[in-house]
Amino acid sequence: MADNLRIAIIGAGMGGLATALSLAKSGHKNITIYETAPGLGFVGAGIQLAPNMARILDRLGCWKQIAAEAVQCSDTYIREGSTNKELGHVKLDYVEKTYGYPHMVGHRASLANSLYDGCLKEPSITFKLGSLISEAQFGPNPSFKLTPVGAPDEERRVECDILLAADGVKSQTRVSMLTSLNETATVKDSGQAAYRIMLTREQMAHDPELLALIEADTVTRWIGEKKHIIAYPIHNKQIYNISTAQPDTNFSTAPNTTYTTTGSKSAMMGVYDDFCPMIHRMLDLVPDGDVVEWKLRVHEPLRTWVHGSSALVGDACHPTLPHLAQGAAQAIEDGAVLGVVLAPSRIADGSPDSINAALKVYESVRKERAEALVELAAENGRQMHLGSGKAKEERDKIFAALKSGKGPVPDKWADADVQKMIYGLDVVDEAEKACLAQGLVAKL
Ligand SMILES: Cc1cc2nc3c(=O)[nH]c(=O)nc-3n(C[C@H](O)[C@H](O)[C@H](O)COP(=O)(O)OP(=O)(O)OC[C@H]3O[C@@H](n4cnc5c(N)ncnc54)[C@H](O)[C@@H]3O)c2cc1C
């Protein structure tokens, strides 16, 4: 029976959890998630919850829980970092009317926990935490090595019928897949790093300008040469989430070095030294020792995401710079599409050929879109980080034209045409249409 196929998902991040939940909702009864972490105590910073993500989470029954503590954004300001001068202001309240969901910002933990809670309610999903997966093998009967964390003697090979690897930007499964296909594509160094900071309302309350920031329903981006800061209130406006992007100077350029490091506060203050006094006061609230710096990594596009009965999901196949706030949204779109194409009724005979055909439809619906957004996010970073010169002057003219309500928004995530392309497309509908076009018709 196709609904009892052994589905193995590697990684319990947004991509893995969304994939498991979508497959459970589509009728699969035998789904196992393998995750290295011994427990899923989700922590971390804020995250933008775009309408294309919200639409899927609502279908999966997770959205209400997230929306209850998220903040709805009514507008966004793009400001010059050095002066705090307004460059552009875009109202976002049209988003809900147009796309059915508002643009919200929330706590990463709330997004992950609601997906995890959804998975826990599904008897068909089993978690194998503390499982390090390596040496995946592909073809019609995928398998991989499972090493229990802390118990290497119990290492064993596990077989499955469908292998879905959502093991993140450092994906070992991607490496194994490329080796097996005799192909190369490498992790690219973006040359950028990010500080991720969360300030509490109490920390900001004494300063009227900072208090106004946490009280507004606003996403603010302060831009400067080769760097920017984006910030918004989360957790019912009890936390102000700040994320930066600047040249990476603290990490080795070797691709395998750590992705996070304890940053130095004085180095951070130095990087934003030419930003305005209000930003200095804001950054200065971060306690010494609490500065965390992330390396931002991307990857060369892969020729394919699919090998036999296996596929890559999320950052494992399309890691995206955060400048469009779409990485997790795209991982969740992957999961939703996998739920459609691999529905037990569509791969009724459960054969490796049917599974491979379904995974190819997944790739056809997802790859071009996700990779276009990877490129658009990188381009948005380049635009926001312009220094002096002609290109900057042109950009600032476009910002200036916005004041009379005209023209495109240089900060692409706030541009109406880009939003239409990202939020206006329902990937589940697209997947249904693609299944029909490929003859992957539900058989009851
Ligand atoms: C600064 C910053 C800001 C961002 N802001 C946004 C935003 O506003 N909106 C948005 O949509 N996206 C945003 N993103 C992107 C988003 O965080 C990622 O795209 C998303 O988390 C990717 O999810 P994933 O499930 O593919 O991978 P991950 O979240 O990396 O999950 C991978 C999982 O696999 C596990 N794993 C790895 N290797 C193994 C192994 N060998 N065996 C078993 N388990 C393994 C890991 O422990 C992990 O749990 C941002 C990213 C950054 C860096």
Summarize the structure.
By secondary structure, the chain is α+β, with helices and mostly antiparallel strands.
Structure in words:
The longest helix is centred in the C-terminal third of the chain and has 33 residues, at 352-384. Helix 1 (14-25) runs parallel beside helix 11 (327-341), helix 2 (51-59) packs parallel to helix 11 and helix 11 (327-341) runs parallel beside helix 15. It contains 15 helices and 20 strands. The chain starts with 6 loop residues before the first strand and ends in a 7-residue tail after the last helix. The chain is globular and about 65 Å long. The relative contact order is 0.17. The chain has a domain at 2-51 and 109-186 and 300-386 and 413-437: FAD/NAD(P)-binding domain, CATH 3.50.50.60. It has helices spanning 14-25, 51-59, 63-67, 94-99, 108-120, 172-180, 201-204, 208-215, 265-271, 277-284, 327-341, 352-384, 390-402, 416-423, 427-437; strands at residues 7-10, 31-35, 46-49, 71-72, 75-80, 86-91, 104-107, 125-129, 131-137, 143-148, 156-159, 162-165, 187-200, 218-224, 227-234, 239-247, 260-262, 292-299, 306-307, 310-312. Bound molecules: flavin-adenine dinucleotide (FAD).
Strand order across the biggest sheet?
A: 6-5-14-15-16-13-18-17
What is the CA-CA span between the terminal residues? 12 Å
Number of strands: 20
Low-confidence stretches: none
Q: Which class of secondary structure composition applies to the elements?
A: alpha+beta
Largest sheet: 8 strands, mixed
Range of strand content: 25-35%
Question: What's the CATH C level of the domain at 2-51 and 109-186 and 300-386 and 413-437?
Answer: Alpha Beta
| CATH fourth-tier homologous superfamily of the domain at 2-51 and 109-186 and 300-386 and 413-437 | FAD/NAD(P)-binding domain
Approximate shape: globular
Distinct small molecules: flavin-adenine dinucleotide
